[in-house]
Specification:
By secondary structure, the chain is mostly helical. Helix content is 48%, strand content 0%. It has one domain. Helix 4 packs across helix 6.
Length: 135
């Protein structure tokens, strides 16, 4: 079984991941539901999976977040493909569809990462055999 630190390094790599690496992250998340729960809470609180060129998020003054730029860290959401309830915005997107709008102040960050959010929703629908996938 892959170690958490190895998966962390893969998820936060400063490059776009290939399909095989994406599947590794999805599978790790599926096998570790508590990890998914804690990760969802962390993403919701700090927003380091978002990319907003107008209002940088996360707080760049927190040194541990300085590496997260230009949505490279959005791949971390792959851990949550099988658990859309772990992150409020993924659950809302799943419920209300691709035209969902998120709160003021972070709207640009969500818009710029919309493909990552949609990837999670489509992945969840495929994994669960949901009939909404065709739509």
């Amino acid at each position: 079984m892959p170690k958490s630190i190895d998966m962390h390094d893969l998820a936060f790599a400063a490059r776009r991941l290939g399909v095989r690496d994406q599947v590794k992250l999805v599978n790790f998340g599926r096998k570790n539901p508590r990890f998914q729960e804690l990760l969802g809470a962390s993403l919701f609180r700090y927003g380091y999976h978002l990319y907003n060129q107008y209002r940088p998020a996360p707080d760049w003054y927190v040194q541990d977040f300085a590496q997260f730029r230009r949505a490279f860290c959005a791949d971390v959401m792959l851990f949550l493909v099988s658990a859309p309830d772990a992150l409020l915005q993924i659950r809302q997107l799943l419920e209300y569809g691709p035209n969902t709008r998120f709160g003021a102040g972070r709207e640009h960050g969500f818009h710029n990462c919309s493909y990552h959010f949609l990837r999670n929703v489509l992945g969840y629908l495929a994994l669960s055999g949901d009939s909404r996938l065709a739509a």
